[in-house]
Amino acid sequence: MNVTLMDYFPILELPEEIQALVVERVAGNSFTDLYGLRASCKTMKALAERSRVNHFYDVLSVPRRLNMPPELFKTCYAERNPSTLYMKGVQFFFTFNLQEEGLAFMKLAADEGYERAVYTYAMTRKIFWGDEEYFARFTRESVVRIGKLVRSLKWAWGLSHSDEFLAKRDEFISTVVPSFYSCQCVPVMERDWVLWYIENSKGDKMCNRCFWIKELGLFFREFEPMSVIMDTREW
Fold first, then answer.
1. What is the pTM of this model?
2. How many CB atoms within 10 Å of residue 188?
């Protein structure tokens, strides 16, 4: 027997404006669940097809097997969808070297509360301008979780970072990483001067400064620019 969300949660008994809010929240949480809800009845299908819903998709969480059509990215961007603003910001900043425009797009997505954007914007501000303001928005647990999510996205397709980013990384390794190992906040378990194993070098009780050095090291090591296979300038 097929059991659906409708069997557990009688959405159709709610006022229409509440039904619309439910659909929007489902769109933000799971693309797959939205399609299941959309297929459940004509009312849900109509609500799911409203243009407003396109604002809430996290296009970076859509399973690749669904092959999201390129036109849907444009449609979502037209609705100021935070995940598409983030994509545009990352590509403009790290791929096209349009730093002012890219940073502005990332900030728009961050101000919408899009976690990937808040994290990447915070790291970018720190690396390029020494600004740590956004670090205060994270707990250690949240930055570890979101950082893994952001860095797991492999979309460079052979594209390398800019010379400026690589120079910042080399400067970080030569001037900041040594202070990570010289700090005596906790014992050093393993030394690594080129970021390969920096996450294994100290325990969880390290001081706040060392924690952020470790997170910046992971960003330098694993974050990829976005290839031009999908050119967000066309949106």
1. 0.83
2. 17
